């Protein structure tokens, strides 16, 4: 406020604006923060305490939820499943998308438009639309060839491509388009072939974009519930479904659920905040498109 | 700032039409012409595998009487003709009535969440347009709900909404004394409120993010010129910020609508696979029909209907917004 008083430039906001801002942002801050506080504070409470009326502060600070959560349910195993599935589907879709985006961004060819429209439109389709047939296809493949896909990590990786792949292609086309063509034309004049142009010029230049796409794909895969709830069994369960297991017949281990939720959120929130600048540019470009 | 994919890309310069005309059928040229297809091949294969074929299979099974008895060998399922669609759209019988009900639940859920998220998101973005102390930190903080995995966010809210040991009832019953008896939040009418709150909490940061980015492309001298002309800050918001954001908002609203209309994570985590009737969203309804009642044919028909509705909404929306844009420029 003091700076508003000191030099009143013509664009300096009036007091009414500053107060509106303070009140509105405080309320929004509370709205955002209260669940986060519930998570953090409940994760250091005892089981008895989370089963009784809620208290803002833990009466007995304990770290036991963070220790017990690994043995109450096979959290480590779920963690591993999620990590494998999310990183594999991310890796596969980013690699495929780099080539596809190169073709779409740098070549004119028949069917280019059809391909782009298909990729873009599948992003808006509900996941349930693909889940049902994919499940049946997997069952059928399993019956006729013996290759088990449902309830396996491989099957889950494939189904996760339904959302990681179109997103990756679409975003990478955007990033490649933003790289001046002069760069790869110069390289091709110098005798560089298409593949080496891609890997020597475009991939390094778009590296922040590629990393961003990877981080975001990983985040979406890490948070996916729908496919994971149908396509997994006890041994391949991911975190999205596995956290349900903290609710037993008699007790719901809310303190451990909150501790586990925090721990599984840390990788993606950290990734998001680290890549924030690039993610925002890419995401908003995708949305504004 | 924003690496926007350009709609009207300039034609590739290295291939002028003259070169195209001179092209002869040689191995080298064939390889050149086939090259983009080669790069596209893996993507096309996987697109077929995860999108195109499942979609065709989905349409095909929507005409089949595919129940649990035929899951093992679903190609043997008897044909159903339009029966699945007739049942889904017959609003006098139980299935159709339920579907219609969850359609309206989904619609009101989506409209509410989109409207609230958009209001909160653009409000915050507009208020945070000017620099102030701690702005960067606050922006990052606001993004945390969006960065959290969907299920951890919904689980936390589920805990908040617990009747006996949740935070919400603690506040309204014991701290504010608004009611004497603690209400249920996850069953009955209140479940809809709980669902909307949870979804808004997760969605509004995205609206904030997109509007913030959209505002960065508004030239600063526009504001200065308006200020020199004597326009106050509220007037500048109304006359410059909001109109400039129109194209951004058009896309944002469509994206938010589609996301929330298709949302499965939030209700599924909040309520489990059998939600209260007041909060039975379409995606859950289809999930239920397919994986709880094992009626895949019916579930597929509902998915196809959902898709048709979304395509219709998108088409109408795009036509409506484009028309306005083109008349504006005349």
From TrEMBL, chain A:
Domain of life: Bacteria
CDD domains hit by this protein: TM_PBP2
Family to which the UniProt record says this protein belongs: Belongs to the binding-protein-dependent transport system permease family.
Pfam families according to UniProt: BPD_transp_1
Predominant location: membrane
Topological type in the membrane: Multi-pass membrane protein
Name of the protein in question: Binding-protein-dependent transport systems inner membrane component
Protein localization: Cell membrane
GO cellular component: plasma membrane
Residue ranges constituting the ABC transmembrane type-1 domain according to the UniProt record: 79-275
Record field: transmembrane: 23-40, 78-102, 114-136, 156-176, 197-219, 253-274
From TrEMBL, chain B:
Start-end of Basic residues biased regions: 10-20
Residue span(s) of domain ABC transmembrane type-1: 103-317
Chain segments annotated as transmembrane: 37-63, 99-120, 140-161, 300-320
Family annotation (SUPFAM superfamilies): MetI-like
Region entry Disordered, spans: 1-20
GO cellular component labels: plasma membrane
Species annotation: Catenulispora acidiphila (strain DSM 44928 / JCM 14897 / NBRC 102108 / NRRL B-24433 / ID139908)
A GO biological process held by the record: transmembrane transport
InterPro entries noted in UniProt: ABC_transporter_permease, MetI-like, MetI-like_sf
Membrane topology: Multi-pass membrane protein
Protein location: Cell membrane
Keyword Repressor: no
Keyword Transmembrane: yes
Family under the similarity heading: Belongs to the binding-protein-dependent transport system permease family.
Protein name in UniProt: Binding-protein-dependent transport systems inner membrane component
Keyword list, A-Z: Cell membrane, Membrane, Transmembrane, Transmembrane helix, Transport
PROSITE patterns linked to this entry: ABC_TM1
Predominant location: membrane
């Amino acid at each position: 406020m003091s700076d508003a008083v000191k030099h009143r430039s013509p664009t300096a906001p009036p007091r009414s604006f500053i107060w509106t801002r303070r009140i509105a942002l405080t309320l929004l801050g509370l709205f955002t923060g209260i669940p986060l506080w519930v998570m953090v504070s409940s994760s250091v409470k005892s089981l008895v305490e989370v089963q009784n009326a809620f208290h803002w502060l833990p009466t007995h600070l304990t770290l036991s939820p963070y220790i017990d959560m690994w043995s109450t349910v096979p959290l480590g195993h779920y963690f591993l499943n999620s990590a494998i599935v999310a990183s594999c589907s991310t890796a596969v879709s980013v690699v495929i998308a780099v080539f596809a985006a190169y073709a779409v961004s740098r070549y004119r060819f028949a069917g280019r438009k059809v391909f782009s429209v298909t990729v873009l439109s599948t992003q808006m389709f509900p996941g349930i639309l693909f889940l049902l047939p994919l499940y049946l296809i997997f069952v059928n493949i399993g019956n006729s060839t013996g290759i088990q896909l449902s309830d396996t990590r491989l099957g889950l990786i494939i189904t996760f491509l339904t959302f990681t792949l179109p997103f990756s292609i679409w975003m990478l086309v955007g990033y490649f388009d933003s790289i001046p063509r002069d760069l790869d034309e110069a390289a091709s004049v110098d005798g560089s072939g298409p593949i080496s142009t891609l890997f020597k010029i475009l991939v390094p230049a778009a590296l922040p974009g590629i990393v961003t796409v990877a981080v975001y794909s990983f985040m979406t895969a890490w948070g996916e519930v729908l496919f994971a709830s149908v396509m997994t069994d006890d041994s391949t369960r991911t975190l999205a479904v596995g956290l349900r297991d903290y609710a037993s017949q008699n007790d719901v281990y809310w303190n451990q659920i909150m501790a586990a939720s925090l721990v599984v959120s840390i990788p993606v929130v950290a990734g998001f905040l680290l890549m924030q600048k690039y993610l925002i540019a890419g995401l908003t470009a995708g949305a504004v498109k | 700032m924003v690496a926007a994919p350009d709609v009207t890309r300039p034609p590739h310069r290295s291939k002028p039409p003259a070169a195209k005309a001179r092209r002869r059928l040689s191995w080298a040229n064939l390889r050149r012409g086939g090259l983009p297809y080669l790069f596209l091949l893996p993507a096309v294969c996987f697109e077929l595998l995860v999108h195109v074929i499942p979609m065709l299979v989905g349409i095909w099974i929507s005409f089949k009487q595919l129940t649990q008895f035929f899951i093992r060998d679903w190609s043997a399922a008897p044909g159903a003709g339009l029966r699945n669609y007739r049942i889904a759209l017959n609003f006098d019988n139980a299935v159709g009535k339920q579907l219609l009900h969850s359609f309206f639940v989904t619609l009101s859920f989506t409209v509410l969440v989109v409207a609230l998220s958009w209001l909160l998101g653009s409000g915050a973005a507009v208020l945070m347009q000017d620099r102030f102390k701690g702005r960067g930190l606050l922006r990052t903080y606001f993004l945390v709900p969006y960065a959290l995995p969907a299920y951890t966010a919904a689980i936390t809210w589920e805990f908040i909404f617990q009747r006996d040991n949740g935070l919400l009832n603690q506040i309204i019953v014991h701290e504010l004394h608004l009611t004497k008896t603690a209400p249920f939040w996850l069953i009955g009418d209140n479940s809809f409120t709980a669902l909307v709150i949870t979804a808004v909490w997760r969605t509004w940061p995205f609206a904030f993010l997109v509007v913030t980015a959209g505002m960065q492309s508004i030239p600063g001298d526009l504001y200065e010129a308006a200020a020199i002309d004597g326009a106050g800050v509220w007037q500048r918001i109304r006359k410059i910020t909001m109109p400039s954001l129109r194209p951004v908002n058009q896309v944002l609203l469509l994206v938010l609508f589609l996301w929330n209309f298709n949302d499965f994570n939030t209700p599924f985590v909040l309520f489990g696979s059998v939600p209260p009737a007041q909060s039975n969203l379409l995606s859950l309804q289809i999930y239920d029909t397919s994986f709880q009642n094992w009626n895949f044919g019916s579930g597929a028909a509902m998915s196809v209907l959902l898709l048709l509705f979304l395509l219709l909404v998108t088409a109408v929306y795009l036509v409506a917004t484009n028309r306005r844009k083109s008349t504006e420029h005349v």
